[in-house]
Design brief:
two-stranded antiparallel ribbon; single chain; 2 domains; alpha+beta; 2 helices; 136 residues; 5 strands
Length: 136
């Protein structure tokens, strides 16, 4: 738990009872230790009929690229059959007879990965993701 420092220190609660203090501890649950979220702003003029004033923190939102298409293979299609056949051929043709050290094993794994990737890319189609697309 961290203490957030207000940029404009002032009371956050205004009591209706005479003689009662206006101070109270308010809680905000933010990412602890974040440099972007380490202070907040108190708006005493915004409390309207409430006895508490709003605490405001600005949360930066980074621009993010969202993919709108993906490579896919339709179930029970000729492309799926070709992908399975190609993957089976890749596995059958792997030469594992000379795996005498970790370097040769890593090279074989990389070769296997690149051949499977090639087989996938050869048999997939680019499809557009829409609100009607399945999530899986």
């Amino acid at each position: 738990m961290d203490l957030s420092t207000p940029t404009n220190p002032t009371s956050t609660r205004y009591s209706d009872t005479e003689g009662e203090a206006n101070l109270v501890i308010n809680l905000m649950f933010l990412h602890s230790g974040s440099t972007e979220l380490n202070n907040h702003l108190i708006h005493p003029d915004w409390h309207l009929s409430s006895d508490h004033v709003p605490l405001i923190v600005t949360i930066p939102i980074a621009e993010e690229y969202i993919t709108s298409s993906k490579l896919s293979i339709l179930k029970k299609s000729k492309e799926e059959a070709a992908f399975i056949k190609g993957t089976t051929a890749v596995i059958k043709n792997l030469d594992t007879s000379n795996l005498t050290n970790s370097v040769k094993l890593e090279n074989l794994v990389n070769l296997f990965g690149s051949r499977i990737k090639h087989t996938w890319e050869k048999n997939t189609k680019q499809t557009r993701i829409t609100k009607h697309s399945k999530q899986w």
